[in-house]
Design goal:
Elements: E1 5-10, E2 40-44, E3 49-53, H1 62-83
Antiparallel strand pairs: 1-2, 2-3
């Protein structure tokens, strides 16, 4: 599933709940810092959501949160493959015998 950043989606500050109605005026581009005190979430491509936060969060960018989500998903896929007995990468190549 794609996880490229779409935007920061701000929500109403009532109760600092990220599940409140949207505050369209508070939306931010992916590389703009979202300061503490702004509830909302990062919308990613494919409908994925990253960093659903209330008011008490460290400053963040949705570009960084989307990248973190993508990396987490990659690691989970690799772990599932290993658990199922599938190699995650090709084994190292063997040296060729010398030509005679």
């Amino acid at each position: 599933m794609p996880t490229d950043c779409v935007s920061w989606r701000a929500t109403a500050k009532e109760n600092c709940d990220p599940d409140r109605p949207r505050n369209l005026a508070g939306d931010r581009p992916c590389f703009e810092f979202v300061p503490r005190g702004e509830p909302g979430y990062c919308e990613c491509a494919g409908g994925a959501v990253a960093a659903r936060v209330g008011c008490e969060h460290s400053p963040l960018t949705c570009a960084g949160e989307s990248r973190r989500l993508r990396e987490t998903r990659r690691l989970l896929r690799e772990a599932r493959k290993r658990a199922a007995g599938h190699p995650t990468s090709l084994p190292p190549s063997r040296p060729h015998p010398p030509l005679t």
